[in-house]
Amino acid sequence: MPKVLVSDPIEQVGIDILSQVAQVDIQTNLSAEELVRIIPEYDALMIRSGTRVTQAIIQAATQLKIIGRAGVGVDNVDIPAATRRGIVVVNSPEGNTIAAAEHTLAMMMALSRHIPEANYSVKSGQWDRKRFTGVEIYKKVLGIVGLGKIGSHVATVARAMGMRLLAYDPYLSLDRAEQLGCRLVELDLLIQEADFITLHLPKTPETANLINAPILAKMKPTARLINCARGGIIDEAALAEALQAGQIAGAALDVYDKEPLAADSPLRQLSREVILTPHLGASTEEAQVNVAIDVAEQIRDVLLGLPARSAVNIPGLRPDLLEKLKPYLQLAETLGNLVSQLAGGRVESLKVSLQGELATSESQPVVVAALKGLLSHALQERVNYVNASIEAKERGIRVIETRDASIRDYSGSLQLSATGSLGEHSVTGSLLGDNEIRITSVDEFPINVPPARFMLFTLHRDMPGIIGKIGSLLGSFNVNIASMQVGRKIVRGDAVMVLNIDDPLPEGLLEEIMKVPGIRDAYTVML
Ligand SMILES: NC(=O)C1=CN([C@@H]2O[C@H](COP(=O)(O)OP(=O)(O)OC[C@H]3O[C@@H](n4cnc5c(N)ncnc54)[C@H](O)[C@@H]3O)[C@@H](O)[C@H]2O)C=CC1
Ligand SMILES: O=C(O)CCC(=O)C(=O)O
């Protein structure tokens, strides 16, 4: 019988499902060393946010087939390490949506009517009605940053309560925002106009410290800020200062940069209106039952040799088909991620063109992998092989698929063209030798480069000196170039330059590159 380790508190209903097919051991509060020691015995691991599944644990997990996260965020699992070992990672993308949205609404109401402080005052023997005069939320402006699943539910309820809605989400279509009664605006406008601001976006390099001192300074002095998404999206020190200085009226936080929140965090010392909860967004009986069932069923299915319905890293395909298509799925995901960044946010359409040998294979998993890559910058771990098509449809992305078996430049190649806020861009890629990915064209300019974590693309006039100027400019910003290639169609026409660089582009450098004579456009990409 297979063995499952449950290393965080999980609802009994989940344990019952696992027990149908496996021996279940519940051992919570294990240290990292203890986990490394015992993990080799187990076929599956079920966790919440308390267990960090590091590379060391994955390396020791010689039998492990699946890691199940009873919740959404899989930021506590080393996904690349799991993928390399062929371990499926599953989550429950929707099981706690309502719980997190309702916690947000509760925070907003509690802030507007001073409920925690008033409660504390009555319990300590006082009867002070004047001090706790609140504000109504009716007709107030709610600014929603991140209009995905949780943000949408908050919008629906807040609208029913008579609030006016603004939203900032660079990856969402205007149509979807309109359906939810939200006016889609830029972040600056939302920050300046909203009476309540609520965050519902993932934490990514792009969103870390998104709400910082300059942004806080633009908020109304009567504004209140709520974060039930992820710690680190708000600069906590800047928030504490803004609250202390009376720059904004209040804040309610469920999540923190480091959890548990440090005992001496300045946030704990504030006397102004601050509500702090210990990451309770998903903590309802219903959500915990939902996520336990959702994830336990997937673990059971994988242990029975069936596909998982919400795999974050590996699609639920028949093993023989998966083996054959796996390198192409990786290619499609990489190209999808790349083309979405070149096309900018708010992609309206994606053209997937399967060429050569690839044109004769089953296309649907390749299209899904391309969509997963396309949405991965916006949705992070929320997008998987199961929901990528639905997410794309909900975002109003049109998918057009074409095949051409006659193109034989490489044994099989894939071209993705996306139209987004930065116009239409296309990338083509192929597999070389040992299934190594090569990007073989950008906007129809021929190149041959491997993808890298940090890349810089320019469109420029093909003329002497321009490559040297870009190289020197990068050098003056201390950016190390790992490789560089130029592709052109005609001599002294337009050309593209692709640079793989060792670090992210420093702030201000892209603007400097754009000023170089002959440069028409420049893009930086993180894969
Ligand atoms: N406090 C808690 O216990 C819980 C917290 N969460 C967190 O809530 C957050 C939202 O979850 P869902 O709504 O389910 O996710 P989702 O994936 O459905 O929606 C996220 C939205 O953020 C948008 N987005 C991405 N980058 C953005 C940017 N730079 N600026 C503005 N918008 C951006 C995306 O386009 C997407 O529409 C996640 O961080 C999740 O981890 C989720 C469940 C419970
Ligand atoms: O397991 C939990 O309670 C955390 C929930 C959460 O933050 C998530 O699902 O992303």
TrEMBL record:
One of its GO terms (molecular function) is NAD binding. SUPFAM superfamilies: ACT-like, Formate/glycerate dehydrogenase catalytic domain-like, NAD(P)-binding Rossmann-fold domains, Serine metabolism enzymes domain. It catalyses: (R)-2-hydroxyglutarate + NAD(+) = 2-oxoglutarate + NADH + H(+); (2R)-3-phosphoglycerate + NAD(+) = 3-phosphooxypyruvate + NADH + H(+). Keywords: Amino-acid biosynthesis, NAD, Oxidoreductase, Serine biosynthesis. GO terms for biological process: L-serine biosynthetic process. It holds the Pfam family 2-Hacid_dh_C. It is an enzyme of class 1 (oxidoreductase). Its EC number is 1.1.1.95. Residues 455-527 form the ACT domain. It comes from the Bacteria. Pathway: Amino-acid biosynthesis; L-serine biosynthesis; L-serine from 3-phospho-D-glycerate: step 1/3. Belongs to the D-isomer specific 2-hydroxyacid dehydrogenase family. Catalyzes the reversible oxidation of 3-phospho-D-glycerate to 3-phosphonooxypyruvate, the first step of the phosphorylated L-serine biosynthesis pathway. Also catalyzes the reversible oxidation of 2-hydroxyglutarate to 2-oxoglutarate. This is D-3-phosphoglycerate dehydrogenase. The lineage of its organism: Bacteria, Bacillati, Cyanobacteriota, Cyanophyceae, Neosynechococcales.
